Amino acid sequence: MTNYCVLGTFRVINDGRDCTPGPPKLRQLLALLLICADHTVSLDDIVAELWDEAPPKTVVATVQTYVYQLRRLIERERLGAPGEELLTTNRAGYAFHVEPGALDAEVFRELSCQSRRDLETGRPGEAAAAAQRALDLWTGPAFAGVTAGGVLDTHAVFLDEQHQRTLELRIEADLRLGRHRELVGELRYLVARHPLDEWFHGRLIQALGRAGRRGEALQAYRDARQIFNDELGVEPSRELQQLHLDVLTSDRRPLALAG
User: Are the C-beta atoms of residues 247 and 205 closer than 8 Å to each other?
Assistant: First the structure.
């Protein structure tokens, strides 16, 4: 089976062999076709990705040449089943067929959705496991090794957002499982990396409070308040203020978990 990796270093692996195209434009075109797998990518989008606003005069012929080279790669490396046409052409553009489970980005999305469903139906253990499997698919920034243009950059931003939402799902599931102490170090790291993200600040305050580290939880709130005042000129949100109040008034009672 051929596997396509876009969540980190861009790779095409077939039966353990690295079949990733070498030429930068071929990598770029294949990455675009893969992230839009089984959907037609228009010629306009291909041109915008490969050349932005400065396409060559022979742009149509050049794209056709790249498509031909990709087909040669597919045939040479036997990426598809015998007789299977992976890269197809239609009036609107080009489409690349990917078998279920072959593209890591698609597997990631499925696992992330499964994690959310599990959490919503009261199964935090299953939710945490599914989210972690999704996160483990990432080996670095999306499309690493590809010189991305504007179209791929947009997809990369979307994938990064999905990555953060999935990380939040896993953390929330772990909190519901009572893994407060285990989360403190990770949340301190995330707060340092994302100092303006109130969600991470709130979860750190919760984890510290639930772990019985009341003084550190109060200090975490003071640190967050200082950051928001210094950087944004605003006070923390009502949710963060409520978490602070919960810590102040808690007497070993559990803190309410915000969504």
Answer: yes
